[in-house]
Amino acid sequence: MNTTVLRFSNVYGLYSYHKTSVIHLFIKQILQDEQLTIYGDGEQTRDFVYSKDIAQAVELALIDESEGFDLYQVGTGNETSVNELFGLIKEKMKQRGYQSKIRVTRRNDQARSRGTIQIYQRLKMNWAFLHHLI
Q1: pTM of this prediction?
Q2: Which domain holds residue 115?
Q3: What is the CATH number of the domain that holds 72?
Q4: Of 26, 37, 74, 121, whose Cβ has the fewest other Cβ atoms within 10 Å?
Q5: Taking the alpha carbons of 88, 94, 96, 98 in that order, is the dihedral positive or negative?
Q6: Residues paired with residue 38 on neighbouring β-strands, in sequence order
């Protein structure tokens, strides 16, 4: 039986406001005028991938005709620190008239996280990653 398994990195995008990821949490907290919390020094990284990119990866996996078992961590292959992410969201929200308050705590968090783009490379698809914030 031919099987392809996809594991998604940190997904964000439309209709995912209910998620508890850092992107959605920061935006919710700014909208509700709450203090944001950054754990550790904020230099821990994640691979954030847009929901439309995930949809395209699923489509590619469905049409893939390779045999056997494949397992992919779907992401952009780019690491973004929590501090960088906060800066991007803060700027976008500021442009819309929102202010942010920040609190840093020393709780440990996973230091790094980065996905791969192997499924796109293997299927030789022309892949342009979208980097939409908000």
Answers
A1: 0.68
A2: 3-122
A3: 3.40.50.720
A4: 121
A5: positive
A6: 104
Which single residue is written with the structure tokens 């991938």? 49
- Tally DSSP H helices, then E strands, for the chain: 4, 8
| 87-118 per-position pLDDT tens digit | 998 888 888 888 777 666 655 555 555 665 55
Please report, for residues 36, 40, 79, the alpha-carbon distance to residue 111 in angstroms, rounded to integers and kept in the order given: 19, 9, 11
CA distance 85 to 72: 25
| Domains held by the chain: number | 1
DSSP line for 56-76: HHHHHHHH----SEEEEEES-
d(CA 111, CA 120): 26
Tokens 């509700």, located at residue: 32
DSSP strands (E only) in 20-97: 35-39, 45-46, 48-50, 69-74, 80-81
Q: How far apart are CA 49 and CA 44, in angstroms?
A: 16
94, two tokens: 């500021």
